[in-house]
């Protein structure tokens, strides 16, 4: 029987990660956060004043494209925004963009910081970057684009709220071989839900901010060598 690895992602996220997981292990989704609607009118008003400056849409989450386009349509901004090329992190995010009619120009696999670097190489400043995102989002893409001279327009179009215990899928029997925690909030809520049930299991932090949260919780952990599927593979191979 295969060993299993708990990851605080949704089942829809796993196909992109499974090819990177050693054959001896099964990746099991434990989505401790669930998507809920969110809208920030002030962010949209700011964006509407700068449409002529926009060069590209940066998308780092597959949750963002659908509410982004729906909110744009309600404001009559969809025609202008759908003309922009999209830079996406991961094939799942790229597919979600295409599903709503956005044109994906490039797909990165190394996270938001690397996508910012690619955008900096492909587009010339001064230029504006639309960043449809969650209410809580990582800042590395925004900070790196700002440092490169781009004007960035973060646009929170959804939120992730803690799931209730009854909303979570059942887990396989026995302890996992590892637990992969993908964000600080996911780490915190995972700990609340499991009450230390898997504290003896190796815990892997997806990135530095998640690692900081695990440190606060008093958990022993390792940080992925890179915050991407390749880094996940390296960390899991070390555990095996």
From TrEMBL:
Pathway: Porphyrin-containing compound metabolism; protoporphyrin-IX biosynthesis; coproporphyrinogen-III from 5-aminolevulinate: step 3/4. Keywords: Lyase, Porphyrin biosynthesis. It holds the Pfam family HEM4. SUPFAM superfamilies: HemD-like (SSF69618). One of its GO terms (molecular function) is uroporphyrinogen-III synthase activity. GO terms for biological process: protoporphyrinogen IX biosynthetic process; uroporphyrinogen III biosynthetic process. The keyword Protein biosynthesis does not apply. Coiled coil: none annotated. Residues 26-231 form the Tetrapyrrole biosynthesis uroporphyrinogen III synthase domain. Its EC number is 4.2.1.75. It catalyses: hydroxymethylbilane = uroporphyrinogen III + H2O. It is an enzyme of class 4 (lyase). The keyword Lyase applies. CDD domains: HemD (cd06578). Belongs to the uroporphyrinogen-III synthase family. Catalyzes cyclization of the linear tetrapyrrole, hydroxymethylbilane, to the macrocyclic uroporphyrinogen III. This is Uroporphyrinogen-III synthase. It comes from Thermoanaerobaculum aquaticum. The lineage of its organism: Bacteria, Pseudomonadati, Acidobacteriota, Thermoanaerobaculia, Thermoanaerobaculales.
């Amino acid at each position: 029987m295969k060993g299993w690895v708990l990851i605080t992602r949704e089942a829809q996220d796993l196909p992109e990660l499974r090819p990177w997981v050693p054959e001896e292990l099964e990746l099991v989704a434990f989505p401790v956060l669930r998507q809920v609607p969110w809208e920030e009118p002030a962010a949209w008003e700011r964006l509407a004043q700068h449409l002529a400056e926009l060069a590209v849409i940066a998308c780092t989450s597959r949750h963002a494209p659908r509410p982004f386009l729906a909110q744009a349509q309600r404001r009559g901004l969809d025609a202008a925004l759908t003309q922009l090329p999209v830079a996406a992190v991961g094939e799942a995010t790229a597919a979600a963009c295409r599903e709503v009619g956005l044109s994906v120009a490039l797909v990165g696999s190394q996270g938001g910081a690397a996508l910012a670097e690619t955008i900096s190489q492909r587009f010339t400043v001064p230029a504006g970057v639309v960043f449809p995102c969650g209410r809580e989002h990582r800042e590395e893409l925004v900070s790196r684009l700002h440092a490169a001279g781009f004007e960035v327009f973060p646009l929170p179009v959804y939120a992730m709220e803690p799931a209730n215990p009854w909303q979570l899928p059942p887990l396989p029997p026995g302890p996992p071989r590892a637990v992969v925690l993908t964000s600080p909030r996911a780490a915190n809520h995972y700990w609340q839900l499991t009450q230390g049930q898997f504290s003896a299991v190796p815990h892997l932090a997806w990135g530095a901010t998640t690692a900081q949260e695990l440190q606060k919780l008093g958990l022993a952990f390792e940080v992925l060598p890179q915050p991407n599927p390749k880094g996940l593979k390296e960390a899991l191979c070390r555990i095996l």
